[in-house]
Amino acid sequence: MNKLLLSLLLHRSKPKNDQGFSLFEVSMAILVSSAFLMGTLQAMTINAVIQVKSERQAKALFWIQEDMERLQAAGSEMDLDYIEKSDTLNPTKKTPAEICRPFAITQNQKMDRHLGSYMAKEFDSWLSKDAYDATQSEPPLKANTFSGAPDFKQFKTDENGKVIFTNQKSVLHTVKEEVEQTNGTKVDAPKKVIVQVVRDGRDESSESDIENNLLKDYRLVRMLTVESKFNYHILQVYYRVGEPYDQSETDPDIRGNDKDKDTLRDDESGRKSIIAENYTEVIPAAAADCSIAF
Q1: 90: exposed, middle or buried (Cβ count in 10 Å: 0-12, 13-18, 19+)
Q2: How far is Cα 219 from Cα 60, in angstroms, rounded to an integer?
Q3: Which helix (H) or strand (E) holds 163?
Q4: Radius of gyration of the chain from its Cα atoms, rounded to whole angstroms
Q5: Could you tell me if residue 268 is inside a domain?
Q6: Which sign, positive or negative, has the C-alpha torsion 234, 235, 241, 243?
Q7: Considering the chain, what is the average pLDDT of its residues?
Q8: In which domain, by residue range, is 52 found?
Q9: Is 101 left (phi over 0), alpha (psi -120 to 50) or beta?
Q10: Which of 46, 94, 174, 208 is the most buried (most CB within 10 A)?
């Protein structure tokens, strides 16, 4: 009995393994988990923002591509017979010879009576019939087309407002070169540009789907111009998708600036209004009928 008691007293107890984690270990585990979770959430947020921007830009480019194809198709259909029979394009019933070789007293009249002007008037007439609640040209086209259009000094700026594409050539042929009066240096005349609002995202949103419309705060505009080197027969079309400039808005932070008169807010530092741009040229089929070579 004494021997058994002695062996029990001398036997070493095994250390217990159920004492749990210390406060320091628990704190470190929480910190590591929080850091990992924050990094994951941040990556997911950035990915979602990039995906929305990508989808918005893709839809904006789709808007542009859709309208480009429409204009190109119209150009292929607009032959001499089409123009001659159109009440919109030929209200005075000009003959085919007069359409192909219009009499022009001034260069302004020449610009307005050539084939590029016919297409501009045709596309303007479409806007009042479109399903997108689009408006006609700004300002609306009257008897004259390009000669009455506003001057447009530049076509593109970066997000800081720096001009990265300007007009390289005057639209009109003039005997005297345009000269800046202040220091006598030669400058290029601004182009005459017709601005047309093609579609507005706000007009295409109903109460139920407005939050799902990625372009609800954007509009598509096309800017039409003609070039003297093509004898005004080719219509040049510049597209932009950007945030609308609301002239009726009194708050300048909401209204923004529109110095180039394209009906879109100008790009500002840290904020890019224009999210998509493109350029195309439309040649009417009448050019081939009139045997016009470019």
Answers
A1: middle
A2: 9
A3: strand 163-166
A4: 33
A5: yes
A6: positive
A7: 78
A8: 41-289
A9: beta
A10: 94
* Global pTM value: 0.74
Q: What is the pLDDT of residue 158?
A: 57
Decide if 113 contacts 92 (C-beta within 8 A): no
Tokens read off for 59: 């839809």
> How many structural domains compose the chain?
1
- 3-state SS of 166-218 is ECCCCCCCCCCCCECCCCCCECCCCEECEEEEEEEHHHHCCCCCHHHCCCCCC
Convert 74-115 into a string of H (helix), E (strand) and C (coil).
HHHHCCHHHHHHCCCCCCCCCCHHHHHCCCCCCHHHHHHHCH
Q: Is residue 119 part of a domain?
A: yes
What is the pLDDT, as a whole number, of residue 221? 93
Phi, psi of 9, rounded to the nearest 5 degrees: -70, -35
